[in-house]
Design brief:
Helix content is 29%, strand content 24%. The protein has 9 helices and 14 strands. It has a 7-stranded mixed sheet with strand order 6-5-4-3-2-1-14. It has helices at residues 3-19, 66-73, 84-91, 106-110, 125-134, 210-213, 217-230, 258-272, 292-303; strands at 28-34, 46-51, 57-60, 92-96, 119-123, 156-160, 167-169, 174-182, 188-196, 199-204, 234-240, 280-284, 309-311, 319-320. The model is unreliable at 6-21 (pLDDT under 50). It has one domain: 4-Layer Sandwich (Metallo-beta-lactamase, Chain A). By secondary structure, the chain is an alpha/beta fold. Bound molecules: zinc ion (2 copies). One zinc ion binds next to loops.
Length: 321
């Protein structure tokens, strides 16, 4: 082989490696940094996700960061690093925010002074508008992002997601497709479909049931993911159950109960069939109160006539899918 063609061959290998999203391993590594839907400000919705073998994580919602990373360091997930701020700087590549409610954003805002520059915040336009007007705003904090109130610090770049259009995050080895959800119409939330090669994971931000929301956003999402379930490509669905069945539809404020989750899962089952039973259903965003979590878990067991695999992620405990 001539020197010039050897050079081209090596360059080709290098490019191939990069476009392959830097990992040939299948599946995902997930670290929940926060799992609850309110009250306990040290444990609010935030999930680190990367392709197995990739260097960095994307952060799906960012209710709690610091306390979650501290907990995760107890298990040495980040090697010799044990300082939460250093881990955030080095290992979190970017943030995907489902909607602008504080229990999904407070960790990002509060930890912004210690974070490193040039990170992306990905969200649909209506969510970026909330972040700009009421969170990274000089009235409530400093503007660490790149648009909105002056002075602009510009540490974070807003990246406007187009619904149902996939984007690539190379350093985390994943691609992400957003889907709009209804969270008390017309307020929008987002689901993120994360892909590593042919494997998928679905994370939903807060959402009400279609029937209560007078919406078809969940139906649209189920239609998109049903073929992935049939082909056994979808590994897990992270979905909220905020309240027990005791809460009336009029008081749901854009959330699901065990009965409503299972009604939606039955609709998905009609589209996807028996393979839905092999998908891990990760129940998120339970709102704490005396006996609330126990009631939700009991209601879910009773309503689970399909025999779905239900899991309850814990803060700082790694999940491999
Ligand atoms: Zn929430
Ligand atoms: Zn919300």
């Amino acid at each position: 082989m001539k020197t010039s063609s050897l050079f081209l061959f090596i360059i080709g290998l290098f490019i191939c490696n990069i476009s392959n999203s830097q990992t040939n391993q299948k599946g995902f590594t997930i670290i929940p940094l926060g799992v609850k839907g309110g009250l306990d400000e040290s444990n609010l919705s935030a999930y680190l996700v990367k392709a197995n073998g990739a260097e960095q994580y994307i952060c799906l919602d960012a209710g709690t960061i610091y306390a979650g990373l501290q907990k995760a360091t107890l298990s040495n997930y980040f090697g010799p690093l044990h300082d939460a701020t250093e881990i955030q700087k080095k290992f979190i590549n970017s943030y995907f925010i489902s909607h602008g409610h504080l229990d999904h954003t407070a960790g990002l805002v509060m930890n912004s002074p210690g974070d490193s520059f040039k990170k992306n915040i990905y969200a649909i336009p209506s969510v970026i508008e909330v972040l700009k007007s009421s969170q990274f705003s000089s009235k409530s904090w400093s503007n660490f992002a790149n648009e909105g109130d002056k002075p602009i610090i510009g540490k974070y770049q807003y990246q406007y997601l187009v619904p149902e259009k996939e984007i690539e995050v190379n350093s985390a080895g994943v691609s992400v497709t957003p889907f709009v959800l209804s969270h008390v119409k017309p307020y929008e939330s987002t689901a993120f479909l994360v892909r590593n090669q042919s494997d998928y994971l679905l994370y939903l931000g807060d959402t009400g049931p279609d029937e209560v929301e007078h919406s078809s956003q969940l139906e649209n999402l189920w239609n998109h993911i049903a073929p992935l379930i049939q082909k056994k490509q979808l590994k897990s669905i992270f979905i909220e159950v905020s309240f027990s069945n005791k809460v009336a539809d009029a008081s749901l404020y854009g959330h699901l109960t065990p009965n409503w989750l299972m009604r939606e899962m039955n609709k998905l089952y009609l589209l996807a069939g028996d393979h839905l039973k092999e998908v891990s259903i990760m129940v998120t965003h339970m709102k704490p109160c005396v006996n609330c979590e126990t009631n939700i878990k009991e209601d879910l067991q009773k309503a689970n006539s399909l025999g779905l695999k239900l899991y309850f992620p814990k803060q700082g405990e790694i999940i491999n899918q």
